[in-house]
């Protein structure tokens, strides 16, 4: 029996860390493990919610299949034939619940927290998992600020049987944060997690829950058509860009939200690049006629056609690095042609246009930074991308390759496109930027080069 | 123990060999041939020779409805194409091969896992597990925590929990599914020799009885060779065409 002081399979149980509705968490130690550990034990007393068992089975299936810094490391488990438990890494940092005492938080902190959580969700979604219970208590932070998602008892893994979906007609999840399609039983859309994160950000920035704390599922379903009070109305200190981001997360129809958590993280990390639409300046809730139209909407929400990880893969972040100083219009046009081909048929992809400025130049009449931005926009115009899908960045650095690589890592770029320098003298002196980027990039790289007309056989 | 389970080989030597080799490389400790070794494909003799060799080396072979029919030379209830293939196969087999087929058992148990070609409620009646209702009938008929069957040629996994609710699931190629001991499971494998789930690659199951977990594995093989032999043998054209489509 699990209680403080007991020893189970070599794990010595310490104090109870948390007593939840479905499980108990104990601090545990084991002579073979130096990592801080906790043991999760389901509540199995008669009269307990039968969902506790199924939820525990789901966590036992999903957690061992996850990896990376955004989940607690799985250590050991035992099934229901004996005393069931899961042992995992104990994250030392606090949960986001600890910050709920200090609401509202400054917008910059809300954005930093939001970006960290969105990156954690992006990592989960790429591992085929929708968390479906994103709320402050399930969001933990490592000492370096990396967000960790805890509790996979309500999660959906698209490559494993979904026991929660079949066992219970009533969808489980935390009512204040749950996406409307989740309340209707749809469990495979990663954008449901973005809705939940949107409610968390709203709460952090305003101090209030966007949809209150309903007790019944019927009330949760209302958010299919009823929009929340615009956050700036509740806290005028919230800047328009943050309201734009939050209200896009809270769109009742998943197709109108960010297509991926990585794109949400990108927006939160680049406030000055957020395209401000009507959401940014919205002052009051939608008028009754608009709400009525949504209420009458005939079609129920459909699962994402390409599945959980497929939805994310269909919304990649591309970056093109342009060397505006040389190569001329020729290479620029080739790069644009290539970019147009890569973007074709991917309406949910977004593009970041990069240029590296090597050190501040003196004596120029126009600010070189501004001039480069103008040139980047000029280059991108023929692609015909709407403002919300393209951004422009001038990176100031002495090492161009390192700057491009840093950018790709920090922004979860899926695919880098850049040109190869033609002037062999410059390449000899400065090294090949494209060569270094291609070798070290954390993602796909396309190098565009003009066909050389060498004298064959010479 | 890792058990490679090959169902519905159907006289397709190229697919059979490709799966066996893949399973060996993948660390299989044991091989199970889950019925329907012959019927449809053009290589019944060579497939049986290889099967006999595998059995001598420790493999387990079970009876399928096409094996039963080919051994007896009778195909009650089969459609015209299947019946034509059975008649052709029966003529090709020598008495020893017919005896080998006729002597195969309907089901077997390894480490608490029930292995059967069609399903558990009446293995010799050759019912198809195509939906949750049929899966429940099979699960109700056995105490085994894990049942593995074939016969349908389309991968599926059914799970029965404490509450009595049955969860159907379409397995994803190459993604191991843990079979929690708190529930009971019925795994339906795809076919080695005649897949029908729109994926023409040969399918077999890798069951790890220790963890326990099961993986639906897909293996490419020389479809053109298997199909041209079917045409050369004068078997119905459709049996060759469908191999390319996996339908």
Which terms summarize this structure?
heterodimer; A: 458 residues; alpha/beta; Transferase(Phosphotransferase), domain 1; Rossmann fold; B: 247 residues; Purple Acid Phosphatase, chain A, domain 2; 6-stranded mixed beta sheet; 8 helices; globular
Briefly say what this structure is.
Chain A is an alpha/beta fold. Chain A has helices at 51-62, 107-126, 163-167, 180-183, 191-206, 217-221, 231-234, 240-249, 261-269, 278-281, 288-295, 307-313, 328-343, 368-380, 400-410, 424-430, 433-440, and strands at residues 7-8, 11-19, 23-30, 33-42, 74-78, 85-89, 129-130, 139-141, 147-149, 156-157, 317-321, 350-357, 390-396, 415-419, 444-448. The mean pLDDT of chain A is 90.
List the SSEs and their pairings.
The complex is a heterodimer of chains A (about 450) and B (about 250).
Chain A: E1 7-8, E2 11-19, E3 23-30, E4 33-42, H1 51-62, E5 74-78, E6 85-89, H2 107-126, E7 129-130, E8 139-141, E9 147-149, E10 156-157, H3 163-167, H4 180-183, H5 191-206, H6 217-221, H7 231-234, H8 240-249, H9 261-269, H10 278-281, H11 288-295, H12 307-313, E11 317-321, H13 328-343, E12 350-357, H14 368-380, E13 390-396, H15 400-410, E14 415-419, H16 424-430, H17 433-440, E15 444-448
Parallel strand pairs in A: 11-12, 11-14, 12-13, 14-15
Antiparallel strand pairs in A: 1-2, 2-3, 3-4, 4-6, 5-6, 7-10, 8-9
Chain B: E1 2-6, H1 13-25, E2 30-33, H2 44-56, E3 60-61, H3 65-72, H4 80-92, H5 95-102, E4 107-110, E5 113-116, H6 132-140, E6 146-149, E7 156-160, E8 166-169, E9 177-178, E10 184-188, E11 202-208, E12 213-219, H7 223-232, H8 237-245
Parallel strand pairs in B: 1-2, 2-3, 5-6, 6-10
Antiparallel strand pairs in B: 1-11, 4-5, 7-8, 7-10, 9-12, 11-12
